[in-house]
Amino acid sequence: MPSINSRVARATADLTELYRDLHAHPELSFAEHRTAAIVAQRAKSLGYEVTEGVGGTGVVARLANGPGPLVALRADMDALPVLEQTGLPYASLATDPDSGRPIMHACGHDMHVICLLGTLEALASARDQWSGTVLAVFQPGEEVGRGAQAMVDDGLFERFGTPEVVLAQHVLPIAVGTVATRPGAILSANDSLLITLHGRGGHSSRPEATVDPIVMAAATVMRLQTIVSREIATTDQAVITVGTLHAGTKENIIADEAQLGLSIRTYSPELRDKVLEAVRRIVRAEAEAAGADRAPTIETLTRLPVTVNDAAALDKTCVALRDALGVEQVLEMGAFPASEDVGILAEAAGAPLCFWFFGGADRAKVAAAQQQGTVDRDIPMNHSPYFAPLAEPTIDHGVTTFTAAALAWLGHQQNR
Ligand code: ZN
Ligand code: ZN
């Protein structure tokens, strides 16, 4: 009987070409039409029962193979409005037809799609070695934090079954071949806020007749940065970034309002509430201090929960990962200040989540940068215009990892 590894090797043989194709044709959140069609076609050809249009552009591929657990495997499909500068021969030249913005797979979701497709192939060809049901969830709109919820709202689990576990992986520029994860909170909550400070506009020469929203905004930005430094215990972690600040049209006009875009990361519900309350308090108080006629408007753009790995489920998965990759390749990491919506799937299913990162960066480059202390400078992170996971052997490792994790949960026969 062919081993799982040889099945993986066969499954990944033509995936590099498809990876390059997906990379060259990225699509923004909820516009993953081409990607979804490719996924659907390929999953069907592997014998999966495929349903398209779940939660917008989401695709569900199901393979029932006798009695046993239902295991959900999730990959996100969307790209980002980034102008690619990797110089790769298959770099994206795509732009959004509506806005003209450049588009790039700068978070590696193309790699996630490819690795899940390879996993589906490996599992389909090894049907004699497991039993249960595979539920592959190709999710739209992760980068806007709404895709998982959209699929849940479209009846994902009612229509296709409630899984016993939700498994998901994300490529990161750590050494290829390694996997990094941790029990408990692995990714932060993300709250994105759009704050409008209402001033009173007028002539630049007569500030006494106005309430200047730019001064109000400047004071607010500086004060917001005291939340982490002055209100949070050293043992807690939080990040507050004011990522956008817009006001004014001309230097001799005092503007009517200023808008601030905030991104807030926290690692526990309690800290999240505390930080959000501090933000509201400071924003309101600075407006009052400036003599604003109206309280600021605070709008929530994104609300992503903390991503929490179930400790027992992760233990079980990691045994299989160590077995497949080697003990020293499975690393325990600290909590990571990025956010994901995959936790929404697990929560809606009432199932444990296992989420891990897998490496996509050249081992020698990572080692050299670590030695020189220049990782931040030399190794482009996700969302960077230079982010460029190696196609090979990342695909191989990604498929091996996902397949091993799935088999840990499916009724796996040990006679391979
Ligand atoms: Zn991302
Ligand atoms: Zn991502």
Plain-language structure description:
With 416 residues, the protein is of the alpha+beta class. It has 2 domains: 4-187 and 306-409, 3-Layer(aba) Sandwich (Aminopeptidase); 189-304, 2-Layer Sandwich (Alpha-Beta Plaits), CATH 3.30.70.360. Helices cover 37% and strands 26% of the residues. The protein has helices at residues 4-12, 15-24, 33-45, 109-125, 147-153, 156-160, 213-231, 269-289, 311-325, 342-349, 363-372, 375-378, 394-409; strands spanning 49-54, 58-65, 70-76, 130-139, 165-175, 179-181, 184-187, 189-198, 202-203, 238-247, 253-254, 257-266, 297-304, 307-309, 330-332, 353-361, 411-412. Strands 1, 2, 3, 4, 5, 6, 15, 16 and 17 form a 9-stranded mixed β-sheet that branches. A 4-stranded antiparallel β-sheet has the order 10-12-8-13, covered by helices on one side. A hairpin with a 3-residue loop joins strand 1 and strand 2. The radius of gyration is 23 Å and the shape is elongated. The termini are close together. One zinc ion binds at residues 107, 109, 142, 170, 382.
